[in-house]
Amino acid sequence: MTTTLITNIGSLVTNDPALGDGSPLGLIENAALVIDGDTIAWVGGGAAAPAADASFDANGRAVIPGFVDSHSHLVFAGDRTAEFNARMSGRSYSAGGIRTTVAATRAASDEALEANLLRHLDEARRQGTTTFETKSGYGLTVADEARALCIASAHTEEVTYLGAHIVSPDYADDPAGYVALVTGEMLAACAPYARWVDVFCEKGAFDGDQARAILTAGAAAGLIPRVHANQLSYGPGVQLAVELEAASADHCTHLTDADVDALAQASATTVATLLPGAEFSTRAQWPDARRLLDAGATVALSTDCNPGSSYTSSMPFCIALAVRDMGMTPDEALWSATAGGAAALRRTDIGRIRPGARADLALLDAPSHVHLAYRPGVPLVSAVWQRGVRAA
To answer: Strand, helix or coil at 223?
Structure first.
């Protein structure tokens, strides 16, 4: 198996305090690392670097763990440009929102859906993302939800069943019937392709009792819960996520003190995943990351890439938003976009650069990770290794 030495790293983010300067980022200056196959074999100071079969000179630039995007919706067809344009122009817009994407997705072929997924994955990879989670939720029939998850599972281990995105238009007058479908026939068809079960617990989608029934049924089928929680309003989503030991409560925009305390108490189990692209694209209230971090909650950052409310695949963009508008420091934002995302996926093999971890990393065309927030919108990722292979 070929080994590769990456040397002359100006600043290496390991996310392991024991390897570096003792900070959460575990920074090592003037560093080097060795990749052996698909894993990290060695990390340390450049002067002590061992020999390897091949070498790559980082020329004093920064190396960070590959981004872990733990919340996205990438199996879809069509776009919602008109909706976005109207929203940004201050005009009312009465088209179907998610239902518009549902109609386009149902009409698309498997080949078209997969091609669109791959286009977005390539786009994300070129910006440093090496692990992504993605969901169903734009089919809302047994066959369409199952095929979405089948397509996604060919490209990631982190696949989420989101039949409970909204009540299907086919069941507009029978939400109880749709919940029965989501927890019955649809779940049986989708569970073999998924690791996670999710629900949009929100006014206009699913209430607390419905969400509990859906998540409990998913858990009984072997899926691990995660929750779209408290995005548009105060509600039961966060408390439900903590109660059911969900891996993450996602959005977390409208939080009571009790919600914050619950997430802090459950910091080892339930991650608060913040999705600033959604607030940017909808001009909504920003999540208060500072409040969560100061309370002791574990925080992740993710793109929420979807065609309606957050059409970005850029984790660097989300880092810049989190630093500028959500009270995070550059160090906290990078940790949340890497190790935090790994925690939201209950993974220890990604989101860090340390011996035994998967060799997922990004080289920045900058001397420090701080440039991700300092130079927003600039394409700073100049090389990406995914499972030890130069991917971009």
So the answer is: coil
Tell me the residue type at 294: D
Q: What is the pLDDT of residues 48-101, one digit of tens each?
A: 999 999 999 999 999 999 999 999 999 999 999 988 888 889 876 555 688 889
- DSSP alpha helices (H): ranges in the chain? 81-88, 98-107, 110-125, 142-153, 175-183, 185-190, 208-220, 237-243, 257-265, 276-282, 289-295, 315-325, 330-335, 341-344, 371-374
89-93, long-range: CB within 8 Å, 24+ apart, which pairs? none
Arithmetic mean of pLDDT over the chain:
96
246 within 8 A of 232, measured Cβ to Cβ: no
Nearest to 136 by CA among 79, 74, 205: 74
Measured from the Cβ of residue 1, the count of other Cβ atoms closer than 10 Å reads: 10
Percent of the chain with pLDDT strictly greater than 90: 94
Pick the closest to residue 324 from 351, 304, 345, 301 (CA basis).
Answer: 301
Exposure letters 91-120 (e unless 16+ CB within 10 A, then b): eeeeeeebebbbebbeebeeeebbebbeeb
The C-alpha angle with vertex 371 and arms to 366 and 377, in degrees rounded to 5, equals 105
Asked if 113 and 345 touch (Cβ cutoff 8 Å), the reply is no
Half-sphere exposure of 303 (CA within 13 A, CB side): 30
Give the number of other CB atoms < 10 A from CB of residue 367: 12
In angstroms, the CA 179 to CA 213 distance is 8
- Residues 221-249: pLDDT tens digits? 999 999 999 999 999 999 999 999 999 99
The tokens for 126 are 């070129």
Per-residue pLDDT, 83: 87
What was the pLDDT predicted at 98? 85
- Look up residue 189 and give its two tokens: 């068809």
> Reduced to 3 states, what is the DSSP secondary structure of residue 260?
helix
Task: With beta carbons less than 8 A apart as the criterion, state whether 98 and 166 touch.
Answer: yes
Residue 376 backbone zone (phi > 0: left; psi -120 to 50: alpha; other: beta): beta
At CA 212, angle to CA 207 and CA 213, rounded to 5?
100
How long a stretch of residues is the chain? 392
